[in-house]
Every structure is written in structure tokens, then in C-alpha cells.
Write a structure and sequence with these properties.
The complex is a heterodimer of chains A (232) and B (516).
Chain A lengths: L1 E10 L2 E9 L4 E5 L6 H9 L6 E6 L2 E2 L10 E4 L11 H6 L10 H13 L15 H15 L3 E5 L7 H18 L2 E5 L3 H7 L2 E6 L2 E7 H6 L3 H7 L3
Parallel strand pairs in A: 3-8, 3-9, 6-7, 7-8
Antiparallel strand pairs in A: 1-2, 1-4, 4-5, 9-10
Chain B lengths: L7 H29 L7 H34 L5 H13 L2 H12 L4 H8 L10 H26 L2 H9 L4 H29 L3 H6 L8 H10 L4 H22 L22 H29 L8 H31 L5 H7 L6 H12 L9 H39 L3 H30 L4 H4 L7 H10 L3 H27 L6
Helix pairs in contact in B: 1-11, 1-13, 1-15, 2-6, 2-8, 2-12, 3-6, 4-12, 6-8, 8-11, 10-11, 11-15, 12-20, 13-16, 13-17, 13-19, 15-16, 16-17, 17-20, 19-20
Classes of the chains: A alpha/beta (232), B mainly alpha (516).
GO molecular function (chain A): ATP binding; ATP hydrolysis activity
InterPro entries (chain A): AAA+_ATPase (IPR003593), ABC_SmlMolc_Importer (IPR050093), ABC_transporter-like_ATP-bd (IPR003439), P-loop_NTPase (IPR027417)
Pfam families (chain A): ABC_tran
């Protein structure tokens, strides 16, 4: 279980309060107007944004004092998930060995992960030679390989077309199922939430609400969300 | 949140570099001040040198930038065969040894140059290149291309939409200038003027060959003359003090202006060409004039030097060996200094400011100061190599940091979170993230340092004795002795060595495009 215990994040004159619990294995969307602090919230969980108050716990153990790599999660950013000067293989291999000095079993595991996301034969390519979908697949192969119990997505597929995005969300679902991972996904598209996440957290006016079942929420959205979604 | 702890050794290295730079600058100034108290006062000739230094720098800056504007505009909005080559050529004078450029200019505008021969055919009296206008001409030769590149970047930063908007609204030449070009120029031009002015303020080699005499002596040249002809350290010291004061005053005034990046990107974007035959004619003639002005002197250096290059006397080859030693040491020092300051400057401001002011006292001031310090305890001739290498490295340091720091900070902004989330150690971060992103700018920066050092005629003349000359210094001796053929051969050799040094270092360090 991921717990945000009376967390307050302060940046200049912006304040966000978050207090919620997410069950292990759940898939939760984070939705809300731009500038409401969705990325800030996720950054605080992943270790890039300091907490002003409160605690973040995973399975009852405090994680907000740990450096990002020691936290039980993999995160995908909006972009720059791959190093442009490294090959697809090396970019994925960073997930098992950050020094890129791999043992034979580790090499095999990287190849296996690439195979599972459908990038067999792309090992020696550089990111500049990949399509947007292939770049996402490479990043997901690394998430698969690291097998952390929590997967955090900060809109990594925002630039993809609808069909490709749906494909990536299905791939995430598969990876999460295989690793029994919890998924936390920022999105600005209610369809994404419906597709992948049974539950949704709303971030608006400096607070978080939920998680609430996504269907219920979208059928009868609270005023802030309704305004954002354009139902009025 | 900064989770990754940088190694203590790195910070210490940066502090050490900083201390060395501050000590050399302050030590030299201190030595100069202590020495200048003994007796010497400023003569009218010294004031004339001060006035000339400022006057020629003002003229050089104004003309370089003014002439650069139409050339940059033409390059920004026209596509033609050889455009890319011309843009590259605009970067060349920066790595061109000043003596080579002067040789080329003399071949065109000198007493027996092409220009005067043409005038003679028309029955017009020859012009003389020596004096203020010769010094300014040479400075324009160096700084016109630099200004073109700086202003071209301003054009490249005008959003393409604005250009298209002006075309779709049917702006005429005046409207386009007023709404699009003038606002951009008011941002870019002051910085370009400042850069050229500062560069010309410490002019030595150009003034040495084309200036001289009571009416065309810069302070840097006057310092050298006080050394060379009178061995009057007191007078050299007081001149050095004056030069340092003018340099500091100029820096203080100009510090308010944002200096443009001397970056290497964005030069290949083009604006839509405006309609109209007049604009086309203006652009074509600007480009042609600029190309001729740059290419003819260089071509003449090659043509006139070629017959003599293989028969150059032994001292020239010895000087080449000396130059290679100085440049190697200088590039090594530059690599150490710029690496330490770049890495320490990722999340701090001071290493950048310090590196940019690496030579706040001018080369000749530093040379004078170090000479005064070394002279009582050791033979300065023994120190010629390390002192020259250090001063050359410090000269190149601001340019190196301008190439490296933005690239390093961009890499950090793009990939620091990724690297943290994957748990890369500091060493792994350096090896796998930073170095691959920095390799190309580092190659460019060190190549620039190599070319600058190979071509520099500066502090070496204060220190070196016969047998210790670098190639530019030996070449200047040949010119002074009117050994025209050998001087022409040496000029070509120097040109080849500087260009080869640049290309070699850039390939060796910079490597191929890592992302391809």
C-alpha cells in the first residue's frame, strides 16, 4: 500500500496538500487542470520534490527519506526517458546495472525484456532512429526489467496518437500484471483513465480528492473536474 | 533536492583552478603596482597610447558590427551554393593566427599589394596601410566574421512564425525592419559591439606590425617596447597599470550588457527571402564583398608562401617544435581548468564568473607582472614555455566555458532526474550521461584553444630568448628582417599548423555525433 500521510508540498507561493492511500496492485489515474500540481505530486513520491510536511510510506515503511533510486518505484517522464547517445540495449540495461557492466544473465534479461515489448532486433539502434512508439516501448522495457512494485507515469505517451497511446496503455497493463505492480498515472484525457485505471485521484485547488472509482467520478464529476472536462 | 553528492575532490580542483587564476591576476597586478611606484610617471606618449588603444577599439567595433549587419541579413535569408562553406569560413578568422591574416592583408593593401597595383594602373597614388586605418582594417578582418556569426544567431532566433507573418501581412522593407529586424538588432548589436571592443582593447600583434610610432601604438605594444628597447620595467609596469585600469573600466561598463553566446548552433535556419530586385542586389553584393574581403588575403598567403615553405631555414622548424610544445601544454591546462570549472559550475554560479574573467588583466599585463616576479629569482627565459602556455589557456578559457557550460547545464536539466531514478553513481553519471553530451563542445573548445595557442604572438616576446622562439615569434623576426620569402613561407606554415591543430583536436576529442 502507498500512503501519503498528511503531505504538504510548498514551492514559492504554491501549496499542495495530499492525504490518501492506494492499495497494492491498484491502478490509479491522477487527473486535474494543468498547473494544479499533478507532476509536483508525482515528483514528491518519486523523490524529486521535497516535502514540507508529512510522510510517504510504502507497505508501512517510510520512503520519502530515500534517494530516488532506492524507492520502490519506476518512473517515466514526459520526455528524455532515454539517453540519446546510448543504444536501445544500453538504455534498457541501465535498469539492471547503472554502470553498464553486465553479467551474462543480466544481458539475457535485457534481451528478454526487449523481446517482450516487441523490440527484438532493435538492440543496436539509437533513439534518433526510433519512432515515438518504439521510444516508449524501450522505456517500458526498462520498467519491466526493473520490476519495481510501483510504476509512476508522468504522461509519457502524451505526444502519441490515440491508437498508439492505447497500445502503450495495454502494454503497461500487461507489465503491471506480470510484475504485480501498482500503477499511478497522470493523464489529462478521461479516456486514458477509463482504459487503464479503475480508480482516479483528482488534483485541484491545492488538494487531492480520492481515489474514487473512475466510472462514478466521470459520470458525476465534482465542480472543479466538471469545469476542466468541459461539462457544465 | 540534490541527492547525488559530488566528489569533494572535484570542488577542490575547481577551487585550485580559481585560486591559480586569481593569484596570477592579482600577483601580476601587485607586482606591476609595486614596481610602478619607483619613479616613472606617465609621459604624453603614454597618454597617446591610451587614447589610441580606446580609439582604435571603438572604430574597430563600430565598423565590424555595422558592416556585419547586411552580410548577416543576406546570409539569413538567402540560400545559395556555398552558403554553408561561407558560414564555416566566418568562423575561420577566429582561429587564424593574427600574423597570417596580417600577411594576407599586406599582400592586398600593402605597398606592393594588389590594391595599389590596381590603383597604379589607374594612375592613382598608392594608399598606405600603416597607422590607425591599417590597425582598424586588420581588426575588421578578424571581427567582421565574428560579428556576422553573432548577428546571424539573432536572426536565427527570430521565430519562423514572425517571418511568415510578415510575409503573409505583406510587410514592405521598412515595416519588416521596424517590427521584426530592429527589435532583434537592438538586443544583439550592443553585445556584439562589446565583444569586439573588448577583443581589440588588448590588441598586440596587429599594432606591432601595422601600427607603431607615436601615433599608432596601443598600450600592449607600448608595454612591449618599454621592455624590449629600454628594459625599463618601471615604465612597463605603469603602462600595464593603465591598461589594466582601462580594461577594468570597460568591463564594468559593459558588464550591464548581456554578451551573446558564441555558440555554434542555429546558423543554418533561413528566413523567407523578401521580394524585390533591390534587396536581391544588396544581398548579393554584401555576400560577394565579404567573401572577397576574407578569401583574397588568405588565397594570397597560400600562393605567396607555397614556393618557400619547403626551403624554410632550420630556426623556423625549431620554432615550430617549440610552438607544438607550448600548444600541447596549453591544451592540457585548458582541459583541466575548463573541466573543473564546468563540473563545479553545474549547480553554482561562481566558477562561470571566474572563468569568464580569467584574464581580467590583459596578457601583456600578466606577462609583465610575472616577469617582474620571476626576474629576481630565476632567468625568465626558462619560464617562457609554461608562462605562455598558461596565458594561452587562460585566454581560451572564457570561450571554452561558453561552449561547455550551457551544454552541461542542458544535459543536467534533461537527464539528471532519469540518472537519479536509475541510481547512477557520480562516476557513472559522468561517464554515461555528461561526457557523451559534452564531448563535441569539448572538442570544439579544446580545438579553439590549440589554434589560439599555436597562432598567438603575445607574452612569449617578453620571455623568449634566441632559440626559444615560437613559430609566430620567429615569423615576426623574419618580417622584421625583411626576409620576405621566408616570412611568406612561415606564414603558410603557420596557417597550416593552426588549421591542422584545430581539426586534429576537434576530431580526436569531439569524435563523431554520439546520437547518430
Amino acid at each position: 500500500m502507498l500512503t501519503l500521510d498528511e503531505v504538504t508540498i510548498t514551492q514559492d507561493d504554491f501549496t499542495l496538500r495530499a492525504d490518501f492511500r492506494i492499495n497494492a496492485g491498484a491502478r490509479v489515474a491522477i487527473i486535474g487542470p494543468s498547473g494544479a500540481g499533478k507532476s509536483t505530486l508525482v515528483g514528491a513520491i518519486a523523490g524529486f520534490v521535497p516535502l514540507a510536511q508529512g510522510r510517504v510510506l510504502w507497505e508501512g515503511a517510510r520512503i520519502d527519506t530515500l534517494p530516488p533510486a532506492k524507492r520502490p518505484l519506476s518512473i517515466l517522464f514526459q520526455d528524455n526517458n532515454l539517453l540519446p547517445h546510448l543504444t536501445v540495449f544500453d538504455n534498457v540495461a541501465l535498469g539492471v546495472n547503472p554502470n553498464l557492466r553486465l553479467s551474462a544473465p543480466q544481458r539475457a534479461s535485457v534481451l528478454h525484456a526487449l523481446e517482450q515489448v516487441g523490440l527484438e532486433g532493435f538492440e543496436t539502434r539509437k533513439p534518433a532512429q526510433l519512432s515515438g512508439g518504439q521510444i516508449s516501448r524501450t522505456a517500458l522495457a526498462r520498467v519491466l526489467l526493473r520490476a519495481r512494485p510501483l510504476i509512476v507515469l508522468d504522461e509519457p505517451f502524451a505526444a502519441l496518437g490515440p491508437a498508439l497511446k492505447a497500445e502503450m496503455l495495454d502494454l503497461v497493463e500487461g507489465i503491471a500484471a506480470q510484475n504485480r505492480a501498482t500503477v499511478l498515472m497522470i493523464t489529462h484525457d478521461p479516456e486514458d483513465a477509463r482504459r487503464l485505471c479503475p480508480e482516479t485521484i483528482v488534483v485541484a485547488r491545492g488538494e487531492t480528492q480520492g481515489p474514487t472509482p473512475t466510472d462514478v467520478l466521470l459520470a458525476d464529476p465534482p465542480p472543479d473536474l466538471a469545469e476542466y472536462l468541459g461539462h457544465s | 533536492m540534490i541527492w547525488r553528492i559530488e566528489p569533494k575532490a572535484l570542488l577542490w580542483a575547481a577551487v585550485l583552478v580559481a585560486a591559480a587564476l586569481v593569484l596570477v591576476n592579482l600577483g601580476a597586478l601587485g607586482a606591476v603596482i609595486s614596481r610602478s611606484e619607483h619613479g616613472a610617471t606617465l609621459t604624453p606618449a603614454d597618454w597617446a597610447a591610451a587614447r589610441f588603444t580606446v580609439t582604435q577599439a571603438l572604430w574597430s567595433a563600430a565598423l565590424s558590427v555595422l558592416l556585419a549587419i547586411p552580410v548577416a541579413r543576406a546570409l539569413a535569408r538567402r540560400r545559395f551554393f556555398g552558403r554553408g562553406l561561407l558560414v564555416v569560413l566566418m568562423g575561420a578568422p577566429f582561429i587564424l593566427p593574427s600574423l597570417v591574416a596580417i600577411t594576407g592583408l599586406l599582400a592586398v593593401f600593402g605597398r606592393n599589394g594588389l590594391f595599389n597595383e590596381a590603383l597604379a594602373l589607374l594612375g592613382i597614388a598608392p594608399i598606405r596601410i600603416y597607422g590607425l586605418h591599417g590597425v582598424v582594417l586588420a581588426h575588421v578582418f578578424f571581427n567582421l566574421p565574428l560579428s556576422v556569426r553573432l548577428i546571424l544567431q539573432g536572426w536565427a532566433r527570430v521565430p519562423a512564425e514572425h517571418q511568415r507573418l510578415s510575409a503573409s501581412l505583406g510587410f514592405g522593407a521598412w515595416a519588416r525592419f521596424r517590427h521584426i529586424e530592429a527589435p532583434m538588432l537592438t538586443r544583439v548589436v550592443p553585445g556584439a559591439l562589446a565583444v569586439v571592443f573588448l577583443i581589440c582593447l588588448t590588441s598586440f600583434a596587429v599594432a606591432l606590425i601595422l601600427g607603431g610610432g607615436p601615433r599608432a601604438t596601443t598600450l600592449e605594444l607600448a608595454i612591449y617596447q618599454a621592455f624590449r628597447f629600454d628594459f625599463d620595467l618601471g615604465r612597463a609596469a605603469i603602462l600595464a597599470l593603465l591598461q589594466a585600469a582601462i580594461g577594468a573600466a570597460a568591463l564594468l561598463i559593459l558588464a550591464r550588457l548581456t554578451l551573446p553566446d558564441s555558440g555554434i548552433s542555429g546558423l543554418d535556419r533561413t528566413a523567407p527571402p523578401p521580394p524585390g530586385g533591390l534587396a536581391r542586389l544588396l544581398d548579393a553584393s554584401s555576400i560577394a564583398m565579404a567573401a572577397l574581403f576574407l578569401l583574397v588575403p588568405l588565397t594570397l598567403v597560400v600562393l605567396r608562401g607555397a614556393p618557400y615553405i619547403l626551403g624554410l631555414p632550420a630556426p623556423v622548424w625549431l620554432a615550430l617544435w617549440q610552438s607544438l610544445k607550448v600548444a600541447t601544454l596549453s591544451v592540457g591546462l585548458l582541459a583541466l581548468m575548463s573541466a573543473a570549472l564546468t563540473l563545479a559550475g553545474l549547480h553554482r554560479r561562481w566558477p562561470e564568473g571566474l572563468g569568464m574573467a580569467a584574464l581580467i588583466a590583459s596578457p601583456m599585463v600578466i606577462g609583465t607582472g610575472l616577469f617582474i616576479l620571476i626576474h629576481p629569482i630565476s632567468d625568465p627565459a626558462h619560464w617562457a614555455l609554461p608562462v605562455t602556455a598558461f596565458v594561452n589557456a587562460a585566454m581560451a578559457l572564457p570561450f571554452a566555458l561558453r561552449a561547455l557550460l550551457p551544454a552541461a547545464r542542458r544535459a543536467e536539466a534533461d537527464f539528471a532526474r532519469l540518472s537519479l531514478s536509475l541510481g547512477l553513481s557520480w562516476r557513472a553519471h559522468l561517464r554515461l550521461v555528461l561526457w557523451p553530451r559534452l564531448r563535441r563542445p569539448a572538442g570544439f573548445a579544446l580545438a579553439l584553444g590549440a589554434a589560439l595557442s599555436l597562432g598567438d604572438l603575445g607574452v612569449i616576446v617578453l620571455f623568449a630568448q634566441t632559440g626559444g622562439e615560437t613559430l609566430p615569434m620567429q615569423m615576426q623576426r623574419l618580417m622584421g628582417a625583411y626576409r620576405t620569402g621566408d616570412a611568406a613561407g612561415a606564414a603558410l606554415l603557420l596557417l597550416i599548423v593552426a588549421l591542422a591543430g584545430f581539426v586534429l583536436v576537434e576530431r580526436l576529442i569531439g569524435g563523431r555525433n554520439a546520437d547518430a
